[in-house]
Design a protein that fits this description.
six-stranded antiparallel beta sheet
């Protein structure tokens, strides 16, 4: 027997889950090396500068104050730790939480602290900051991505042209005259210098800001290598020397910009969930004013006690209690319940529910900021914050690599000076060391594997939405499925039998007037046909009309006067015609065609499986039994799903959540990794790591490719490390010129790229 759960549905349960985490502890455990790198990736916003009145955006409630900020430039868990620690240290601050994906930061405090002082504390760390909700919010990701793409295009074009000149110099060695060689070097320099300034500014500004705030990052050795190589090349060109390294500078910038651009694009996609949900929360609603007139207002203007009109087919965006009217609502997006629920005066309707019947008047229980949608948004934000603490393979490698590069290059220079070499010769060896150890292969190790794996998944109908999704998907050991719309088609199917076949066309004449899911399923089974005239709808009971002189009814057993029970556990729709005995139309949920095969494949590969659904226990039990999944829970609210995922996490499980509804959005964000089908609503797709369009059969393939990509990443970092172990001693001992170092650096990048291509051909295994 499966595990049953009848969730209470209380929306505030999840708050304890999200707020009780040892957030600061996990943040502070992260390396701050990467934080300085992140802080310098974007220019400081003018709103963070002295004289800008951030205080105008502070909201006060008694002695408490709250400020929402948009922070630019944070890219890792170290950034979160650094920013939150600085703000929490300010007098009176009770809590500061930064969301990495959206850049949204909320600060609560008491006392005389001002919003300007908080913004200044963040900006002094090297991050841009504006008041949340200003015009500049939400544009930084697109602007950064566009800037990187332009810089990458310019660097790529320049690299191609300079390489043509360099190949000519290499090919003409011993035959090309000194004047011709110097002219080729001069032309290369004229192309390279403005390109280095323009395309390399992303690294130079990052390195400068890091150094200005007393930190070092990956861009410091990159910038040193580029400018030292440029300086030596310009000097050699002026002096008529045989070697110049303009090609190495531009190639290095181009390769590094590829990785930086991919990271920016994936981070922009990962920020979409909160914006989608914010758009839903800010939709207009129709409010009944004191005179009884209906006016259209934004949802965020509603306060508790306001009277709201919910028209037929309209989706609620405010939690409300029905004051007038009766009918049925579809709560599938909210709770996962596959059948509508009857509501009347006094019934609570949560945001996200759809009115299927007559118009309803409801009284707002709370503002939009305290609705079920707001709760789901908070769960999503908490999940995104937790994911931002995940230390990617590249982050760990960078933390070790930066001090190694600086130390090696500095010791090379000092060692040769002590040994009696000239300053020029020592600089050349130091430049060779910097170039040969430059983190080009390291920077491409993860993006190359991600790019190839993403391309392979794309061709299979899978779209990744998160930069580190592959690494987290590769670590999964437990999979939680939603039922309705994920394992099943989400719509009931009418079972046509000998007893119901004759009555089906007549019942469909009534059903065509209804939006009820069972009525739609009955119409689908009957096919095209006429609509009865004079149909009368009785809220909560059914439909009635006179057809060919007979009173026909379609609805509940009570409505048609049926007695007894119908075999089976599926939903039933009753039909009566005059004095004839009532007929029961039975329905069942249909499994997706590939559900059984996908479940068997996942179990074979060692994953434990579970179903969490908001639907009825009988419906969930049937689905679990048909698929052979022994652990399942029914009537699970969005908060209950979050609680279950927290419990699994505490047990040490790495959970993959697969769901498609609004009620799954919070769980999708809280899970270690998440997937959603292509037909899911936009918010669920935005909250997940990947969207699959090829059916449930795609899931085993996604997990195999993810494991393959992780293996390739580890191999690439191993290749980069092995390359450095071999190349560094040769460079330090003066046996490599900067030109050879540049070729070796490019070769190392080519090796990791070719290794990543093995994912495309399926030769990397799935371990």
């Amino acid at each position: 027997m499966g595990d049953h759960c009848t969730g209470s549905g209380r929306r505030k349960q999840f708050t304890q889950i999200c707020c009780s985490q040892d957030h600061n502890h996990s943040m502070n455990a992260l390396s701050h090396t990467n934080a300085s790198e992140c802080a310098s990736s974007l220019p400081l916003s003018k709103s963070a500068l002295p004289g800008t009145d951030i205080q105008a955006f502070v909201r006060k409630a008694g002695h408490a104050s709250r400020l929402d900020l948009s922070v630019k430039g944070a890219k890792c868990g170290g950034c979160i730790a650094k920013i939150e620690s600085a703000v929490n240290a300010l007098p009176g601050v009770q809590g500061a939480r930064l969301n990495l994906s959206t850049g949204h930061m909320r600060v609560d405090w008491t006392g005389a602290l001002t919003g300007n002082e908080i913004a200044t504390a963040v900006s002094e760390l090297g991050y841009g900051v504006t008041a949340s909700g200003t015009d500049s919010e939400g544009t930084s990701y697109q602007a950064e991505e566009r800037s990187l793409l332009i810089a990458m295009g310019v660097a790529g074009f320049a690299a191609a042209n300079i390489m043509l000149l360099s190949v000519s110099v290499w090919g003409g060695a011993g035959e090309m005259g000194a004047a011709t060689r110097q002219a080729f070097h001069a032309i290369s320099g004229m192309i390279a210098l403005p390109v280095v300034v323009f395309s390399g500014r992303h690294f130079f500004l990052s390195a400068w800001r890091a150094l200005k705030h007393g930190h070092v990052n990956m861009d410091v050795p990159v910038s040193l290598a580029i400018w030292l190589a440029m300086g030596v090349s310009i000097w050699e060109t002026i002096q008529g020397g045989p070697h110049a390294y303009f090609d190495a500078c531009i190639m290095l910038i181009f390769f590094l910009l590829i990785g930086r651009f991919l990271d920016a694009r994936l981070r922009r996609r990962a920020s979409g969930a909160a914006h989608d949900l914010a758009a839903l929360k800010n939709r207009s609603v129709r409010r009944q004013n004191s005179t009884g007139a209906i006016e259209s207002v934004r949802a965020n203007e509603i306060i508790a006690g306001d009277m709201i009109l919910l028209s037929p087919g309209e989706q609620a965006v405010i939690d409300m209690t029905i004051a007038e009217g009766a009918g049925e609502i579809d709560e599938q997006l909210v709770s996962g319940e596959s059948l509508p629920r009857l509501v009347n005066a006094g019934t609570v309707v949560f945001a996200g529910s759809v009115n299927l019947g007559a118009a309803l008047i409801g009284q707002a229980i709370s503002p939009a900021t305290d609705s079920l949608l707001a709760d789901i948004a908070t769960m999503m934000e908490a999940g995104e914050q937790r994911r931002s603490t995940y230390r990617k393979i590249a982050d760990r490698a960078v933390a070790l690599y930066v001090p190694f590069v600086h130390t090696t290059a500095a010791l090379s220079f000092l060692g040769w000076i002590v040994a009696g070499a000239s300053v020029r010769e020592a600089i050349l060896i130091a430049v060779s060391t910097l170039i040969i150890t430059c983190p080009c292969a390291l920077a491409l190790a993860a993006p190359a594997a991600q790019m190839v794996a993403s391309g392979k998944l794309f061709r299979s109908g899978v779209f990744l939405r998160s930069g580190d999704a592959l690494e987290r998907l590769a670590a999964i050991d437990h999979i939680v499925f939603d039922k309705t719309g994920t394992l099943t088609l989400g719509e009931p199917v009418c079972l046509v039998t000998e007893n119901t076949r004759k009555a089906l066309p007549i019942a469909a004449m009534l059903a065509r007037a209804s939006r009820h899911p069972l009525s739609r399923a009955l119409v689908t089974a009957a096919g095209a046909g006429p609509l009865a005239t004079g149909i009368r709808e009785h809220a909560g009971l059914g439909l009635e009309a006179n057809i060919d002189g007979h009173v026909c009814r379609l609805g509940s057993a009570e409505w048609v006067g049926a007695g007894g029970e119908v075999a089976g556990e599926g939903p039933v729709l009753w039909f009566s015609r005059g004095s004839e005995p009532p007929i029961a139309f039975t329905f069942e949920e249909q499994l997706r065609d590939d559900a059984k095969a996908a479940v068997r494949a996942l179990e074979t590969e060692g994953y434990s499986l579970e179903i969490l659904s908001g639907d009825r226990p009988s419906a969930v039990a049937r689905t679990a039994g048909a698929l052979g999944i022994g652990v399942w829970s029914a009537r699970v609210s969005p908060q209950d799903k979050a609680a279950r995922l927290e419990a699994l996490r505490d047990e040490g499980k790495r959970v993959l959540m697969v769901g498609d509804g609004l009620n799954d959005a919070g769980a999708l964000a809280l899970a270690h990794a998440s997937l959603t089908p292509g037909g899911a609503m936009d918010i669920s797709q935005s909250a997940s790591d990947a969207v699959y369009a090829g059916g449930l059969g795609s899931i085993p393939a996604i997990l195999r490719i993810s494991k393959s990509a992780r293996q390739i990443m580890l191999q690439n970092f191993g290749l980069a490390a092995a390359y450095n172990l071999i190349a560094v001693p040769i460079a330090v001992t003066g046996h490599v010129t900067p030109l050879i170092a540049a070729i070796a650096m490019s070769a190392s990048s080519l090796i990791v790229t070719l290794n990543a291509l093995r994912i495309r051909h399926g030769k990397s295994g799935s371990s």
